[in-house]
Design a protein that fits this description.
By secondary structure, this protein is of the alpha+beta class. The protein has two domains: 175 residues, Glutaredoxin, CATH 3.40.30.10; 180 residues, de novo design (two linked rop proteins). Helices cover 59% and strands 7% of the residues. It has 13 helices and seven strands. The strands form two sheets. The protein has a five-stranded mixed sheet. Strands 6-7 form a two-stranded antiparallel sheet. Strand 3 and strand 4 form a beta hairpin. Helix 2 runs parallel beside helix 4 and helix 2 packs antiparallel against helix 6. The chain is elongated.
Length: 390
């Protein structure tokens, strides 16, 4: 009987040894751990999470673990502040996306894809890289099931000084904007990049508006003004007047020159991807870095503005100094161009507070200029339709 049990016991021992060996081998697989700070309305963050990180995650599988933390939530803001203080990141360089791998801090959508692949390869060759060790992260890792209690890094205390939520940045330096407590309704912490991206895509209009309350309030005021101008133009065209009010002719070229200057500056910012001078209200850079800064993903909106102002200026020159036979056509062309520009500006102005979640003072200025051009051109068109003057 004992002889019959010996083969069975030997087989069980071999099976136990193989399972134990397999578990040890699995436990010894090197892993690179990283923490990504992002904002759900940050265009650069969206690029990093949808274009740069997924290929690396697919390539390395379980050997690359990334914890994504949204800075618009209360807990995310506290952790971001703790990390910036721990790693002594200057205030002018505190922006998102920000990726921490071990003790290495990567900032922006340019530096992260450039340096991260090499850091991962070096880390895996050196038996992996552990989680960063800044205050507050250990408790989060434990709550997410990513770390055992006995392996917690130093917890420390989360600092609570006033905080300004970071804006999108390709590479620092950048400007910070006010926090948006209306968005702090969830933890904003996940190891699933797709889930993090979806959180941004599913934001409500009110949540996007709350991202930049001062700038977006100004955008809504301009939006209402544009609607009123279009409405008033329609009323004026239907009203019968023998002597419609005419604005001085010189106002058109002046407005065209100012509008062209604004459009040229926006074109430069959009084409070169440089930081715009935004002023005290709004966040021009977030707007200029959004997908809506280009038409069909090809033509920068600023370039389209330069073209539009150029055509309006040309139509005015033809009306003033061209052949008599062209004056009627050029007057109508100027009005139609101004009408199209105003309607397009109205659409873009709506996108800023309710879709992009940020407003651009330069863009709002261009919208106001275009609305003035439409109002001025309407008087000339009505005069022409009534058969008075030129």
């Amino acid at each position: 009987m004992k002889r019959n049990l010996q083969p069975i016991l030997l087989a069980l021992l071999l099976l136990f040894a193989s399972l134990r060996t397999g578990s040890l081998v699995h436990a010894q697989v090197p892993v690179v751990h990283a923490v990504l700070f992002f904002s759900r309305t940050c265009p650069h963050c969206h690029k990093v999470m949808t274009e740069d990180l997924p290929p690396l995650v697919e390539q390395h599988g379980e050997q690359l673990s990334i914890l994504a933390i949204d800075t618009v939530t209360e807990q995310g803001r506290d952790l971001f502040l703790a990390a910036t203080l721990h790693y002594q990141i200057p205030p002018e360089q505190q922006g998102v996306p920000l990726l921490i791998v071990g003790n290495t801090v990567l900032m922006g959508s340019l530096e992260i894809p450039q340096r991260l692949p090499g850091i991962i390869e070096e880390g895996l060759a050196a038996d992996g890289i552990g989680w960063p060790e800044f205050p507050g992260l250990g408790a989060v890792l434990q709550a997410e099931g990513l770390l055992e209690t006995e392996n917690l890094p130093p917890v420390g205390e989360n600092p609570k000084p006033p905080f300004a939520a970071p804006t999108a940045v390709a590479n620092p330096p950048l400007v910070v904007e006010e926090e948006s407590p209306e968005l702090a309704t969830d933890s904003g912490i996940t190891v699933d990049l797709e889930e993090a991206v979806t959180a941004g895509e599913n934001m409500t209009l009110a949540q996007r508006f709350a991202q930049d309350r001062a700038g977006n309030t100004l955008a809504v005021i301009v939006l209402i003004g544009l609607v009123l101008v279009v409405w008033r133009v329609g009323v004026a065209l239907r009203r019968s007047e023998k002597n419609p009010r005419l604005w001085p002719n010189w106002l058109v070229p002046v407005l065209v020159l100012v509008g062209t200057g604004v459009a040229l500056y926006l074109s430069y910012v959009e084409i070169t991807q440089t930081e715009a001078v935004c002023g005290p209200v709004g966040n021009c850079n977030t707007v200029q870095q959004s997908p809506y800064a280009t038409l069909f993903g090809l033509v920068p909106i600023g370039v389209l503005g330069v073209l539009g102002y150029g055509l309006i200026g040309t139509a005015w020159l033809v009306r003033q100094y061209g052949p008599v036979a062209w004056k009627r056509l050029s007057t109508m062309a100027l009005w139609l161009l101004a009408l199209f520009g105003t309607l397009f500006s109205l659409y873009l102005t709506f996108l800023e507070p309710f879709v992009i979640g940020a407003s651009c003072a330069w863009c709002l200025s261009s919208a106001v200029i275009m609305a003035f051009l439409l109002w001025i051109a309407t008087g000339r068109v009505k005069q022409m339709a009534m058969g008075y003057g030129r």
